[in-house]
């Protein structure tokens, strides 16, 4: 008997987190509800202190100088024919297509983004404000697509904890609200969260407090208070990824600096005089690789080939589960190599010395990383520059030493210039094939679970780097002396004797830099053990399983949260970077079988099926029936 027929309280789902991931779940509920749920009433509660669609990370009220790191044609929130899912494909526009419709008058937008949309081309990098407008439109489109008896309630609050038995309704307690939300099911789509300081970060923070220094721990850069970083003063920056790029922008253009382009296209930076001097280094000592600046053409590598569902099934069947380095990584190495050489043979055959079928047959037979495989590649690909060396890519400055800091600046500028040239030259299109293989690999890895922090960093370094224009700006800042490179193997210590932070690196032995300010340019680790989010910490304390890396363990089939006995909770789901099934992002490149879309669909279908087949009996918690069901709960 349906809940409505029993006269029960309306079924309800609480989605905690109304950013892109929460919006994606909502879109999949709308797509699957007609088949799985019919015309039965349902309340959907979206809980987030930030407006739905963009959420915190993609909210509108951040600097207009901050960009996405994907081109507008490579960003979508909608499924397509490539996505392997049980539910229906519900096509929709990419960011570029949406902007085109806006320009044609088909979609109204706020005046503050109209100018940016008018100038946006398919291969341009949109600002985050513009992406926020797109995400808000996607959210409103998903709400409009819901069946008539499904009602959405927005709660602009923070969720604090979940209570309730495994076999009964849940209660979600919100900050500033005396009564909880009743929930048949709860979905956590929390996105990136703040963390408590690690022991090392606490020591640095305490040192800074004792000596009147500035220490900015890992954080989302747009939320950091940068006012303590004073003009002209040196600032040590540890981290050379996307968080650094945001920091660089906010402390240069964000403080009034400007760029001019010469006849040769080279940028020159004109300081405002309000910038600090950024001394940046990291483990690798180089920035993330530039985004590739050309479109794919011709035959794509047939992926997956050596790391697909069959191989993952075999890995998961091993007693005790697979070890990433010894069991999983060799297959990934072979998969990336296959994509690289398939593209080299098909697009640039003049740079090979073997028939492709012969090469691929021998490549398939060779063990990953074996001497036989290396000999095969050497015989078939005469130029070492055309061979894929993942270790060299991951450690570009290993063994490289510079005479002094000035030589290091020249060397790093040359490295960045070479990277820009390569990533914008189709003659190196095997790089794009490796990028596509990385996306394929990430889609398979979500079934394996916790891979440790190295893989995510390696993926981001190769596949999720900054737009090319940002690296050209970095070169201009380096020539202007506003950014100074510290190289690889960066170590920062607290110099008690002198009351300063001291940075040393392996690239210029014997030299060090001191500063009264240190910025950790990276996001906090997404662990449930150290997160500042009270809800996640409470879940873990009450028995939710954390992986060795501290991620929330979930069932890869549908995202249900696992307890410490490995049992999926029947009523609690989690998706996103705080879980061991984290995908590459909540939105994706079109036609890449995006894992986030597959996860969203599986979770939406699981929750709709649960509500249809096993709706819980009512509990004595007041139902929420606001006069305007779509009004935000303020």
From TrEMBL:
Source superkingdom = Bacteria
Region (Disordered) location:
566-585
Pfam family of this protein, just one? NAD_binding_9
Q: Which SUPFAM superfamilies match?
A: Nucleotide-binding domain
Domain called FAD-dependent urate hydroxylase HpyO/Asp monooxygenase CreE-like FAD/NAD(P)-binding: residue spans: 14-192
Q: How is this protein named in the record?
A: Adenylate cyclase
Q: Organism classification, top ranks?
A: Bacteria, Bacillati, Actinomycetota, Actinomycetes, Kitasatosporales
């Amino acid at each position: 008997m349906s809940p409505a027929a029993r006269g029960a309280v309306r079924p309800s789902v609480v989605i905690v987190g109304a950013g892109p991931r929460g919006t994606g779940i909502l879109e999949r509920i709308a797509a699957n509800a007609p088949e799985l749920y019919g015309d039965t009433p349902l309340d959907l509660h979206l809980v987030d202190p930030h407006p739905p669609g963009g959420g915190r990370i993609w909210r509108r009220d951040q600097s207009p100088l901050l960009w996405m790191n994907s081109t507008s044609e490579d960003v979508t929130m909608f499924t397509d024919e490539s996505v392997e899912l049980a539910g229906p494909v519900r096509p929709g526009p990419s960011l570029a297509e949406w902007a085109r419709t806006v320009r044609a008058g088909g979609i109204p937008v706020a005046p503050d983004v109209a100018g940016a949309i008018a100038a946006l081309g398919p291969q341009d990098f949109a600002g985050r404000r513009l992406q926020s407008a797109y995400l808000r439109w996607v959210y409103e489109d998903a709400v409009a697509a819901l069946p008539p008896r499904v009602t959405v309630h927005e709660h602009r609050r923070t969720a604090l904890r979940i209570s309730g038995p495994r076999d009964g309704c849940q209660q979600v307690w919100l900050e500033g609200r005396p009564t909880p939300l009743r929930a048949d099911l709860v979905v956590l789509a929390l996105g990136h969260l703040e963390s408590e300081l690690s022991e090392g970060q606490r020591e640095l923070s305490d040192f800074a407090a004792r000596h009147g220094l500035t220490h900015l721990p890992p954080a989302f850069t747009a939320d950091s208070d940068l006012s303590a970083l004073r003009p002209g003063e040196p600032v040590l920056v540890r981290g050379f990824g996307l968080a650094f790029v945001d920091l660089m922008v906010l402390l240069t253009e964000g403080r009034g600096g400007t760029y001019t382009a010469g006849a040769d296209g080279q940028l020159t930076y004109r300081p405002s005089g309000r910038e600090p001097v950024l001394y940046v280094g990291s483990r690798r000592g180089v920035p993330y690789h530039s985004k590739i600046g050309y479109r794919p053409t011709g035959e794509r590598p047939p992926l997956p080939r050596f790391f697909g569902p069959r191989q993952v099934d075999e890995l998961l069947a091993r007693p005790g589960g697979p070890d990433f380095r010894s069991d999983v990584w060799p297959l990934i190495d072979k998969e990336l190599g296959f994509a690289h050489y398939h593209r080299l043979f098909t697009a640039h055959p003049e740079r090979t010395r073997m028939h492709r079928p012969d090469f691929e047959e021998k490549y398939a037979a060779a063990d990953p990383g074996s001497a036989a495989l290396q000999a095969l590649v050497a015989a078939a690909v005469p130029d070492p520059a055309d061979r894929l060396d993942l270790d060299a890519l991951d450690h570009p400055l290993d063994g490289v030493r510079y005479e002094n800091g000035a030589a290091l600046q020249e060397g790093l500028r040359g490295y960045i210039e070479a990277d820009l040239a390569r990533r914008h030259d189709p003659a190196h299109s095997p790089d794009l094939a490796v990028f596509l293989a990385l996306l394929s690999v990430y889609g398979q890895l979500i079934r394996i679970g916790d891979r440790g922090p190295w893989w995510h960093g390696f993926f981001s370094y190769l596949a999720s780097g900054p737009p090319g224009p940002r690296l050209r700006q970095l070169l201009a800042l380096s020539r202007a002396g506003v950014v100074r490179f510290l190289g690889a193997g960066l170590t920062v210590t607290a110099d008690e004797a002198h009351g300063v932070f001291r940075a040393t690196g392996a690239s210029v032995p014997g030299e060090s830099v001191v500063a009264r300010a240190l910025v950790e340019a990276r996001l906090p680790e997404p662990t449930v053990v150290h997160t500042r989010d009270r809800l996640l910490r409470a879940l873990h304390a009450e028995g939710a399983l954390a992986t060795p890396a501290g991620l929330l363990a979930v069932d890869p089939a549908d995202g249900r949260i696992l307890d410490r006995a490995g049992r999926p909770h029947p009523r609690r789901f989690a998706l996103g970077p705080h879980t061991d099934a984290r995908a590459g992002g909540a939105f994706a490149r079109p036609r890449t079988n995006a894992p986030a879309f597959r996860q969203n669909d599986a979770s939406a279908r699981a929750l709709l099926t649960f509500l249809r087949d096993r709706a819980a009996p009512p509990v004595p918690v007041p139902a929420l029936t606001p006069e305007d069901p779509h009004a935000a709960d303020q």
